[in-house]
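We read letters as residues; the fold follows as tokens. A sample entry reads:
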Amino acid sequence: MTIHTESTSTPEPDTATTPVAGPARTQHASGRGAPGGDRAPRRGRTDGVWPWLFVLPLLVGVGTFYIWPIIQTFWYSFTTWGVFGGATFSGLANYGRLLADPQLYQSLLNTVIYTAIVLIGIPIAVWLASLLNTPGLRFAQFYRVLFFLPYVAMPAAIALVWRIMFNGDYGIVNWFLGRFGIDGPYWISTPGFALVAVSLVGLWSSLGFSMIILGAGLKDIPPELYEAAELDGASRWRQFRSVTVPLLTPSIFFVVIVTTISSFQLFDLLYAILGSTNPVIPKTMSLVFYFYSAGFIDNDKGFAAAIAMVIFVLIGIVTLVQFRLQRKWVQS
């Protein structure tokens, strides 16, 4: 006997004719296409002129006091000025005179020597900042203020004090050297020694700024690294060399850049210590003093403008080289 069974399976709904409510509900929930719903943000929307109005004072200040003087000085470097004013175009004559003047190379050498001596103060500042960052050190803030005071003091006041100290007859520097049987020179009137004296004052006055920047960088170093190094048996010197200095390289790089640019602009300290009639000036003057002598003593504004452009280019080249070299020793 054969038994016939009928299929009881329910028929599948026709998706082609059955409306799907899910997307409609989603669209309604999202509010798109519904009356009163939020509209999508427009592309390419601008904020108008308000941002420019806020930065306009800064742009006017930078353009007036920085960009325009550079452009004007560049133009003046191609002109020759008369005694009573009035400029005439002279082409590259000022630059030809400048490159043929031995005083340019003497001034450049003096500026480089001064910069090198002042940069020696950065390792000293790293060491002093590390000492002031020692946990539990008493009067640390007082010492920081004490070191920072020369940086904010007037250069004329600093120069007056150091001129007395460097005096060849009754200065405290020669008195101290005499205690060891050394006959000190006349520091500010002897070629060679005058530049060294000015450089030492520049090094001393720049220590405060370097210590503040480096001290801030030391506070960003996690103390756990020193604890781990101490557990590994590292000495204080090894911790300083392997932990402090590598992690402090970004701050050191910043101090090197600022100190180099500031040293290339040496004028006020040199002028205040040596004066303008000192016989050692031709052998001691910096690039900026050379510019001052040409522009304000000799009244040769076109030639002085050419010197200013050379200083501008030299600082730019030195800064660019430092930024290129920092990839090899600065740890990010």
User: Anything to note?
Assistant: The radius of gyration is 35 Å.
